[in-house]
Structures are given as structure tokens and as C-alpha cells.
Amino acid sequence: MAVASTVVYEYLRGKKKFPHVWCPGCGIGIIMGALLRAMADLEIKKGDVAMISGIGCTGRMPVYCDFHTLHTTHGRAIAFATGIKLSKPDLKVVAIVGDGDGLAIGGNHFIHAARRNIDITTILVNNKIYGMTGGQYSPTTPTGKFATTAPYGNLEHPFDAYLLAKGAGANFFARSSVYHATQLQVLIKKALLKKGFSVVEAMSNCHTLYGRLNKEGSAVQMINWFKDHAVNVNIAKKKTPEELEDKFITGVLWEDNRPEYSEQYEALIDRLGGRKKEEKPEAEVVKQ
Amino acid sequence: MSENNVRLFQGNEACSFGALAAGVNFFGGYPITPSTEIAEILARELPKRGGHFIQMEDEIGSIAAVIGASVAGAKAMTATSGPGFSLMQENLGYAFMIEAPCVVVNVQRGGPSTGLPTKVAQADTMQAKWGSHGDYNPIVLTASSVEDAYYKTIRAVNLSEKYRNPVILLLDEVLGHMREKIHIPEEDEIKIVNRLKPTVPPEWYQPFEITPTHISPMAGYGEGYRFHMTGLTHDPWGFPTAKSSEIKEKMDKLMLKISQNVDDISTYKEEFIEDSHIIVIAYGITARVAQQAVRIARHKRFKVGLFQPETLWPFPDKGLKKALENANLAIVAELNQGQMIREVQRLAPKKTKIVGAFRYDGELITPDEIVNKIKEAN
Amino acid sequence: MIKKSKKDSTDSNRIEIRLSGSGGQGLIFAGVLLAESVGIYEGKNVAQTQSYGPEARGGASRSDVVIADGPIYYPKSMSLDILIALTQQACDEYYPALKEYGVLIVDSGLVRQLPTDNAYAIPFTHIARTEVGTPVVTNVVALGALAAITGIVNVKNLEKVLLSRAPKGTEEKNKLALSEGYKIGKELLKQRETELVERF
User: Fold this and answer.
1) Cβ of B61 and A76 within 8 Å?
2) In total, how many domains does chain C have?
């Protein structure tokens, strides 16, 4: 592990930007580490990556990462990322969104990026609460749980991001948690390799707010909860709904191979003869 | 269609082809009357030229995609109208903050709310200046003929590139749908401005470098420079700052890069000013009506001149002050209940009586209405 | 035939034409054809504007074409020189905007109450249906008649523009519609002139 952890230094913006803004014990750092190690495993060059985020605790991640980074407005990361991917299709585009950011205010962009199946790897950090604004309920806060805007318990029903992504047409959906750092790294790697809209939902702990308001304990206790309640997708298949009631399913939940949007658009440009001569790949010119 | 490259174009068509001539290679938009033709034309033309078009899920996404494309190095544009322009305001503020060159065309229709989708208005005059929260300095251009729409779109793109600032082009329903003759110039007749690119080694690059002109070179994604941009108030490196000195430096930069160059940015047209003590002030399509009105009134021996701001923001203060030096009557004609008149009130000498000729019933004001105002008030 | 009022003396030979009726009658397209013929092929300045509702079919629709030798400032019409009305509603609404000596052309099948004896009443829709086989080209029949009656546009130029703008496969029908309209326009004009000679 010691060797593995130094790998991420290459991808971080050095000491200048640290210490970070996250609370001690926050899971976002683990997710960032898993993402950067996945990049290292795939030997992705820093200059080939665009990392776009929205607003919230999760939105702060790009500051620390040495890519082309864009910290945008609340909920809009995927829409900004769409413009970037379409105009520079060679870039590896990663969107970092939170549960409120990506599924409430940004829900529409999430759905339509999935429908378009544009090649953006979306890391959905799900800590079931709005952290930066002080603990309000989010679209993934379970019914009955407490938040500063749900003082009598949440009356609403949470989203299942997996069903949303699958229903909207994404090519890939996987889920893991901050306890399962290695699995998270493997799944992010798969998502980065997958063409099309891919989502990795990383279950994370907000002990400062969600944990305190719902009496779920410290960071360690919350992370242990992930350990005890995670069920791998292959094992889950053999279980009854009752057995899975308070569990969450991890692993690759959905994979498809629908055509990817920016590739389709580039093919359209070629079909219409819109490619400037100097832009044509050399191999093609030689053929003539 | 015909020899000499003379075409019969709609205002929206002229705007679209002006954008292409200026080098726009990305358009993100959402259908809305009366701007939709621009999206339709660019959906057809952009891929033929290697550019990219996308219809986003809403106007918030449209402007987001446009800013994303701009940051990635594209010349990006969107076109919308009333409700869509309102939806874009937050991200437009973001574009001002990260100094992303881009063009937003607003083909104005009647409001508030859904208002009059197929009818004309100029009621976004103030929104174009103040629509997003916080202090920022927009460049807002206008056009008054189909040919003008072509050249003003080119100018909008060029100014956005030159000053690394979003530029808003205010058209209107009548101009957007009106057809007139236009001479399409040859490619080499059009002056193109491209954003300043960094020349320093990547590790020295500051995306918001403090420079004497307040304009910082801008690298695109994938061009060897890695940098951070954020809507949070930031230091020259693009990282969030809470230091008052750096905050003030950033805010000054946003203001000064525009306000120091008002003479370059803010243009206007004048007719019959010299011998006139009555000045009609109008912009866009209303300026066309005013041109007619001024001629009719002069025929009736009124000493009337016309002042037409071509750049609405920053407002051509100097020009109007000078035009009103000898005026004892100023008639402000606009398709709203009185927006630009505030600028005239701010700039006119005390002795000048200021009268509004407002029309806001969805129809274009007529020359007679302006002439009657001149008769009544004189 | 088209007299100028004093009010427009600021403009050089400004002529204002309105094509009016209801949505779906192709009035805006007709306005575009007229503007392009006169503007591109006859070297005049033109401004074509329109007014329409949210409906793609039905609802009031009108298209104004202003033609002048010099610059056109106000792009809409102030007082009409020529009014084409393809519905009773349009005729009633816009006739008051027509100049004293202005030319009124109506579809006689759809405009039953004429506001003046001087109107040129031609069954455009009927001609389109019977002579060409489709009411879709009513607008083009009307344009042909307009060219014949007013002489503001050369019908040859109209045909050129029509053929370049008409959807593929409809060229022949459109050509026929234009010539039918032109033919009846000429006949009517001749008849009118004979009447005038007889009257005085």
C-alpha cells in the first residue's frame, strides 16, 4: 500500500493546495485517491484529462488534481463536460458530482448525458446529504432519516442512481464505497476504459452532518457500516429482497454497448467531408 | 443563388453565417422562438465545416456546454430568447468570472415570463447589463439591419476573443425574421481576432495573470498547459482566494479590461446631429424606425437628429453627451416601458427635456408615433 | 398605376405590398419569392417582414414587402400600395391601410364582401385546384396575378426564384400555377382597361 499511495503524488497539485477543505475522516479523499490510482494504473497522461466538478464538498476535488480542471456552477458539471468532450473528443473527460449536485439540481443533465451516451466518466459521490451547506436532505437521503431541513424525518423517497442511469441509457454503472477503496479503484478503471456515459457511485460518509444528525457515529463507525452492509452484485443475485433490505449492492451493476455520442458526431463530420485536410490522420493520407 | 454573393437573408440567417465567418466552431442551444433558425442553420452548417453543434436539454445546459467548449479552445456561441436568456444568467456570470470568451445572441421577444413568443420587444436592455448577480462588465452589441446582424455577429465574436469576455448580441423578433439583401464578403475581407495564447513555459502559466491590459492569455485544454478555473473568486493561478488584496485585484481586472477600452468597444451612429436641437435616441430595429421618423420630421422642418448606440453596454456615454450638448429635447424610442431612457437621463444636460416614445404591445413602433412625440413635446 | 402620397416623399419610389390571409396559405413564402425576385434579380432594395401567430396552420398571417430604389429605413408598411387578401378577415382588417389609389387583389372564392368596386377579384384557390390540381399553390397563382396586374416584378424573375426555392418534385406544378395566375391577371387587366376606355 505504501508504494501504491505515493503513485498519486504525480497527479496531485503538490503541497501548495493542501491542506484540503474536507473534514478529518471524510471519504472524499479516499475516492480521489482511488480515482488517481486508477489513472496511474492506466498510465493516463495528466495533460489528456479534463476534470469537471460542480458545487459542494465533492466539487472541490479538482483543485487538488493536476489535470485540466474546471470547478463550475451547482449541478452543471456534466453539461460543461459535454461541451468539452464534444469540442475536444480526444480528452479523457471526468465529471465529479455529489448526490445533491448531480441528482437534484443537476439531475436533468445527468439523465440527458446518459441518454446521449457521451463519453464522460462520472464519479457520483453519494453521502446522502448536502454537506457544504450544512446538512440538508438530498435526493438520496433515505425516507425517515434526519437532516437540518428534515427535522421530523425525511418524508421523500430517495433515488436509486443505478436505475436512473440504466433507464436513461448509460453504458456503465458501478457502485462501491469508501471502505472498499481497492474495489472502487478497479471499478473506476473499468469506467474510464468504457466508451460512453459511465457512472461510478461511491458511497461516502458524512459523519460531521449525516452521521451526527442520524446518530450513526464517527467516521470509522460509518465506514464500518459500509463494510457490513455491502453485498457484491454476484452474491446479491442469490439473495431474497428481504435479505437485501438494509444492504447496498456493489460491483458492476450495468453494462451496455450503445454507440457513443462524440464518436458518432466525428463520424458525421467525416461523412459530410467537414474534416480539414491537415486534421486527417496521417495513415489515411498515406493510403491515397 | 445569384452572382456577386448578394443574398436575401433573414436576420437570424445573417447572424448564423456571420458566426461561421468569424470562426465559430461550437454551438450549444435549445429551441426557442424567435431565435430557433440560428440553431437550425448551425446544426446543418457546423458539421460540414468540422465544427460541433449540440442541442442541450435546456438553456442552462446550453450555456454550460458553450463555456466548456470555449475553455477547451473553441469559438463558442449560443442563441436564445427571453425565458432562455433568463435561464442562462447564472452560468453567464460564471463565464464572466472565468473570463471565457463566448457569444450569447438574444433575439428579444415580449416578456415578462413566456410573454409574446412571436412578437417584438427590446425589454431585455437592462437584463443584458445586470442579469446575473455580482459586479461584472458585459459587452452588449445590437444590430439594426440584416447586413448589420452579419457584421455585428462577427464583431461580437472578435470582441469576446480580444477581451476574453462574454459578449451578448441583442437582436429582436422583427430583425431576426426580417429578410433583406446582404452582400456576403469574401473570406479575406473579414477581420478575425483570436484570443491571446500563452507563450510562457507551462509551469509558469497563470490563466488569470495580471497584465497591464488586464487581459490574460488563455490556453485551451490539451494544448500543453494544465490549469484550474473556478467560479469562486480566485488568484491569478485560478485557485480560490479569500485574501482581500487578491479579491480586489480580480474584481478590478474584470471591470478595467472593459472600461479602459470603451473607445474601442462602444460605437454609435449619428445622423443630422449638427444642426439639430431635437435628438431621437434609439437602438436596433427601433433605430430604423427612427431614421424614417427623423426624415419625415425634417421634411416638416423640425430640426431633428438621430443618435443610435450600436454598442449598448458599455453605453457610449461620451458620444451621447456630445450629441446632446445643444439639445433641448431628447426623444428616447424603445420597445419597452422605459429602460435605455435611464441612460439618457443620466447623461443629458439639465436643460434637455427627455421624453419617451415607448411601445410595448408586441408591435414595432411606427415612424408616425415618433414624429407625433416630436410635435407634442417640441 | 401606383401613386405616391406626399407623406412618403422622403423615400425614393417606395412601394409597400402586403400579402395577407391565414396560416398555411403560403403567404410568407410568397413574400420571400417576391422580395428575392425584386431584390436580387431587379436590383432594388427590399425588406420583407411578417406577422404570425403560434399556429403553423390557421390563424391570421401576413407578409409585408417594401420595395425602394433608395435605402429602406422603416422596414414595415406605413400605407399600402398593394394589398393581396386571401381571406375575408384579412381583407376587412387591412383594407383601411390601403392608399386611396392602392391596388386590392382578393381571392374571389374566399372574399365575398368587397370593400370597393376597384378590387381585382380572382378565384386563386379555385384556379389552383382545377388548373394545377392542388390548392397548395394558391400563393403562387396569386403572385402570378400580382406580377401581371401591378408590373412591380418581372414574372420571369419570379419563376427563376420559384424554381430555386420550391421543394424538389413540385417545380412543374409551381411553374404552371405562376403562369395561370399571370394569364388571368393579364386578362383581367385588359378587361379593366377596356372598361375604362368605354366609360370615358
Assistant:
1) yes
2) 1
Alpha-carbon distance B337 to nearest alpha carbon in chain A (angstroms):
33
Query: Using one digit for the tens of pLDDT, what is the confidence trace for C110-144?
Result: 999 999 988 999 999 999 999 999 999 999 999 99
DSSP sequence for C120-162: EEE-HHHHIIIIIS-GGGHHHHHHHHHHHHH-SS-HHHHHHHH
Contact C47 B178 (CB under 8 A): yes
* Over residues C48-63, mean pLDDT: 79
Do B and C have ≥3 inter-chain CB pairs under 8 A?
yes
List the single best residue of B4, B7, B179, B371 to mutate versus C (max C Cβ within 10 A).
Answer: B179
Q: How far is CA A56 from CA A22, A59, A93, A96, A214, in A?
A: 11, 5, 20, 10, 21
Contacts of B240 in chain A (CB under 8 A): 63
Of A162, A171, A190, A166, residue with least CA distance to A250: A162
> Hey, are the CB atoms on A88 and B220 less than 8 Å from each other?
yes
Q: Does domain B3-189 have CATH number 3.40.50.920?
A: no
Does a structural domain hold residue C119?
Answer: yes
Q: What's the number of CA atoms in the CB half-sphere (13 Å) around residue A150?
A: 24
Q: Which subunits count as partners of chain A given 3+ CB pairs below 8 Å?
A: B
Q: Is the pLDDT of residue C51 over 60?
A: yes
The percent of residues above 90 in pLDDT, for chain B, comes to 98
* ipTM computed for the complex: 0.97
pLDDT confidence of residue B276:
97
**Mean pLDDT of the B342-346 span:** 98
How is chain A split into domains, by residue range? 2-287
- Site of grid cell 443584458: B128
Q: What average pLDDT does range A6-28 have in this prediction?
A: 88
Single pTM value for the model:
0.95
Tell me, yes or no, whether C1 lies in a domain: no
**pLDDT per residue as tens digits for the range B264-286:** 999 999 999 999 999 999 999 99
Chains A and C are in contact, defined as 3 or more C-beta pairs closer than 8 angstroms: no
Contacts of B68 (CB under 8 A, 6+ apart): A52, A70, A79, A80, A81, A82, A83, A84, A87
Q: Are C66 and C98 in contact (CB under 8 A)?
A: no
Give domain B269-377's CATH number out of 3.40.30.10, 3.40.50.720, 3.30.420.40, 3.40.50.920.
3.40.50.920
Q: Which pLDDT band holds residue A151 (cuts at 50, 70, 90)? A: very high
- CATH fourth-level superfamily of A2-287: Thiamin diphosphate (ThDP)-binding fold, Pyr/PP domains (3.40.50.970)
Beta-carbon separation of C74 and B285 below 8 A:
no
Asked if residue C52 has pLDDT above 80, the reply is no
- Domain range spanning residue C124? 6-199
| Domain boundary assignment for chain B | 3-189, 269-377
